[in-house]
Write a structure and sequence with these properties.
Layout: H1 3-8, E1 14-16, E2 19-21, H2 34-51, H3 53-72, H4 76-95, H5 97-100, H6 104-126, H7 136-168, H8 176-206
Antiparallel strand pairs: 1-2
Helix pairs in contact: 2-3, 2-4, 3-4, 3-6, 4-6, 6-7, 6-8, 7-8
Length: 207
């Protein structure tokens, strides 16, 4: 392939396996799923009124995540599922639901790490920062890499909770048991996302 042919290729199309990766649509076309994004946006000032600036910051991050999902999810159903998890996770924090239902925190950590790890993987693949899996050994390496990315996200999440507790609001829940439980749930979420990404790539390569 000569230089002119290479330059003509779409710059946003890379592969994981043999499947083109990118947003599920190349131009912005409003659809029903965008209603969840609007709800997340409106939740920012509502969270400030209900629970203060830290909660508003939480919902700001949630809103940003829903827009990242808009442009890097592979399908509308993946986009919608990610949005719902992000919005519910933020809403439970604002409303204090985690304190009322102790086990809910672990479940949400697991789900959030699935969504965030999958989203980060999509972004890296989309920009050619993760290579295609051409054989089983390379596939195993990518699974390990994606899981490691998820664990990194889980660690950064716990650092963020510690920072919020120490410098912003001491009511942010931290502690040895809480942190270890969250990290364990995060690891499980990262593993789930890694196999999800791998399964999606295999289906695409066999299509």
């Amino acid at each position: 392939m000569d230089g002119s042919s290479a330059a003509a290729l779409p710059r946003t199309a890379t592969s994981f396996g043999k499947e083109p990766v990118g947003a599920y649509e190349q131009t912005f076309v409003p659809h029903l799923g965008d209603a969840v994004r609007l709800a997340a946006l409106l939740a920012i000032p509502a969270a400030w009124v209900i629970s203060g600036p830290l909660s508003a910051l939480t919902m700001l991050l949630v809103s940003g995540g829903t827009w990242m999902s808009r442009y890097y999810s592979r399908t509308r159903s993946e986009d919608l599922a990610g949005q719902i998890v992000l919005l519910l996770g933020g809403a439970f924090s604002v409303l204090g639901t985690y304190k009322a239902i102790g086990w809910l925190d672990l479940v949400v950590h697991w789900l959030m790490l699935i969504i965030l790890t999958k989203l980060l993987t999509n972004i890296l693949v989309h920009h050619g920062m993760l290579p295609p899996a051409l054989d089983r050994r390379q596939a195993a390496g990518i699974l390990l890499a994606v899981t490691s990315l998820g664990v990194l996200l889980a660690v950064l999440w716990e650092i963020g909770e510690w920072f919020g507790h120490t410098f912003i609001n001491p009511e942010v829940g931290v502690g040895y048991d809480d942190t270890l439980g969250d990290l364990a749930a995060g690891l499980l979420g990262a593993l789930t996302a890694a196999f999800w990404s791998h399964g999606t790539a295999r289906r695409g390569s066999n299509a």
